[in-house]
Specification:
The structure holds 2 protein chains of 2 kinds. By secondary structure, chain A is an all-beta fold. Chain A is built from no helices and 11 strands. In chain A, the strands form 2 sheets. In chain A, strands 2, 4, 5, 6, 9, 10 and 11 form a 7-stranded mixed beta sheet that branches. In chain A, strands 1-3-8-7 form a 4-stranded antiparallel beta sheet, with no helix packed on it. In chain A, strand 7 and strand 8 form a beta hairpin. Chain B is an all-beta fold. Chain B is 0% helix and 50% strand. In chain B, strands 2, 5, 6, 10, 11 and 12 form a 6-stranded mixed beta sheet that branches. In chain B, strand 7 and strand 8 form a beta hairpin. Chain B starts with a strand and ends with a strand. The chains are: A mainly beta, B mainly beta.
């Protein structure tokens, strides 16, 4: 398994600003994912963070709005840009282990983001 | 495509009642199946998993059996406790290690004493 630390755990931000969320893992992992959980909803995959290359975004999510970095195998950031109240959500980092059959994904505790 | 369908909530039970949360899936190939739990104010925790047909995952008194013939992975517990109150998510990954999870909409369970 892996221990995942996400920072900040919560924040209240002003409309139009940007916030960067950090995800640190205590071991090297192949796959890192970013999910969004809107209030009372399920988790939706934003993108897969690829080490050494651009992230792969899901339909409905774009790099200009959610730029992602992954400089190494233990760290990734997600930026929520030009925020609006509709971006108020929990953002979760998750890690997976490609090549290790059937290893389940592990999640950080999430970042609870409110935009005023 | 791949998808997960969970029963609508909320589910409200008294302590020691029997719990069933239905989950069915659509997938190409042979997915791995999971139940995750989210306690109030916390992130997701893996509750149990099953990786092939007829596998039974179990943890903390919860069980779920991978039924390929009915494409189901229903969650059960014989006697719920107040501390089981949480949101439960059924999820799958296609048969490729490391691919992203696809989640159901979640079912809120509320247990009263």
């Amino acid at each position: 398994s892996a221990v995942i630390s996400q920072k900040p755990s919560r924040d209240i931000c002003q409309r139009g600003t940007s916030l960067t969320i950090q995800c640190q893992v205590d071991s090297q992992v192949t796959m890192m994912f970013w999910y969004r959980q809107q209030p009372g909803q399920s988790l939706t995959l934003i993108a897969t963070a690829n080490q050494g290359s651009e992230a792969t975004y899901e339909s409905g999510f774009v790099i200009d709005k959610f730029p992602i970095s992954r400089p190494n195998l233990t760290f990734s950031t997600l930026t929520v840009s030009n925020m609006s109240p509709e971006d108020s959500s929990i953002y979760l980092c998750s890690v997976g282990f490609h090549g290790r059959d059937n290893q389940p994904q592990h999640f950080g505790d999430g970042t609870r983001l409110s935009i005023l | 495509g791949n998808s997960v369908t969970q029963m609508e909530g909320p589910v409200t039970l008294s302590e020691e009642a029997f719990l069933t949360i239905n989950c069915t899936y659509t997938a190409t190939g042979y997915p791995s199946l999971f139940w995750y739990v989210q306690y109030p104010g916390e992130g997701l925790q893996l509750l149990l998993k099953a990786t092939k047909a007829d596998d039974k995952g179990s943890n903390k008194g919860f069980e779920a059996t991978y039924r390929k013939e009915t494409t189901s992975f229903h969650l059960e517990k014989g006697s719920v406790q107040v501390s089981d109150s949480a949101v439960y998510f059924c999820a799958l990954t296609p048969n490729q290690a490391g691919t992203a999870l696809i989640f159901g909409k979640g079912t809120t369970l509320s247990v009263s004493s």
